[in-house]
Amino acid sequence: MAWNLSLLVQGNDSALHTQGQVRVNGSTTPGTCGSLLANFNASSGEVSVDLSTHTKSLHLEFRVTQVEENPTRIHIQNGILRVDSKEVAFEGILDDQNNNCVPGENLTLHFAGGQTMSLETFLIQHMGAQPCRQP
Questions:
Q1: What is the C-alpha separation between 20 and 29, in angstroms, rounded?
Q2: Cβ distance 18 to 6 under 8 Å?
Q3: Could you tell me which residues come within 8 angstroms of residue 44 by beta carbon, excluding any fewer than 6 positions away?
Q4: Fewest CB within a 10 Å sphere: which of 66, 68, 114, 124?
């Protein structure tokens, strides 16, 4: 399955441009009784999204190399998030292995200055995420 998205929103002296591409690979189970799909199991994919205004820009891209179920674990490679001129790379496994309701303990963020941090730690320390219980 593949989706391509392109959108322009204008108003109040500003314009938001967005374009993106999402590709999802997987297997399907044919449906019955008029249903197209009874089940879709994603296995891999790619995401690339750009948002911009006259003064700000955002770019997000990453590749999903494997999707596991029960528990859900998404393997990510070649991740880049760029906001204006600041950039962070990321890679690893997106999951909640320690069951504290904040995902990302196995996904590593690589900042431009050489610092690294897990997504979970970043979400807790900088974005106000609250664990539901301690691991």
A1: 27
A2: yes
A3: 24, 25, 26, 63, 64, 65, 66, 67
A4: 114
d(CA 123, CA 56): 22
Q: pLDDT category, 109, cuts 50, 70, 90?
A: very high
Give all strands (DSSP E) within 1-135, no chain letters. 2-11, 14-30, 37-52, 57-68, 73-83, 86-94, 106-111, 116-118
For residue 114, how far is the Cα from the chain centroid?
22
Of the candidates 48, 30, 41, which has an alpha carbon nearest to the alpha carbon of residue 74? 41
pLDDT tops 60 at residue 1 = no
HSE value, Cβ hemisphere, 13 Å, CA-based, for 126: 7
CA dihedral angle for residue 125, residue 101, residue 99, residue 104, rounded to 10 degrees: -50
Whole-number Å distance between alpha carbons of 26 and 43: 5
Distance from C-alpha of 27 to C-alpha of 79, rounded to nearest angstrom = 24
Does residue 37 or residue 128 have the better pLDDT? 128
